[in-house]
Design a protein that fits this description.
mainly alpha, Helix Hairpins, about 120 residues, 7 helices, binds magnesium ion
């Protein structure tokens, strides 16, 4: 069983909250700073794929070094998303389910299968 299957979002939120509180960083983790942190970490993720052809993007991750670095960037993004949720009291499970309900209505599978 993977760690994802054994870990709740609440567990992850607590992990990030503890890390931030132990360093007295709540003062820096406001929605504006956190939104920028999410965007800059997303840019760091994209940087890995700059100039990599679309068809080669998955193969890029076969290299263990590349995979480890991309995994770190994904974790950075998630950490800031979790911190944003902690700082604002947004319930991520509700947010994602509500957004997916909107996406399902916006993009009916029978009309969008295989199309974007
Ligand atoms: Mg990073």
């Amino acid at each position: 069983m993977s760690a994802d299957e054994q870990t709740t979002i609440s567990d992850l939120r607590r992990c990030i909250a503890d890390f931030i509180r132990d360093r007295d960083w709540e003062q820096f983790h406001d929605p504006k700073n956190l939104s920028m942190a999410i965007a800059t970490e997303a840019a760091e993720l994209m940087e890995h794929f700059r100039w990599v052809k679309n068809d080669d993007a998955l193969n890029y991750l076969v290299d263990p070094h590349n995979r480890a670095e991309v995994t770190d960037e994904l974790a950075d993004i998630l950490a800031f998303i979790l911190s944003f949720a902690n700082a604002t009291g947004i319930d991520l499970s509700t947010a994602l389910r509500n957004k997916m309900d909107k996406n399902i209505r916006k993009y009916p599978a029978d009309q969008y299968k295989g199309r974007y």
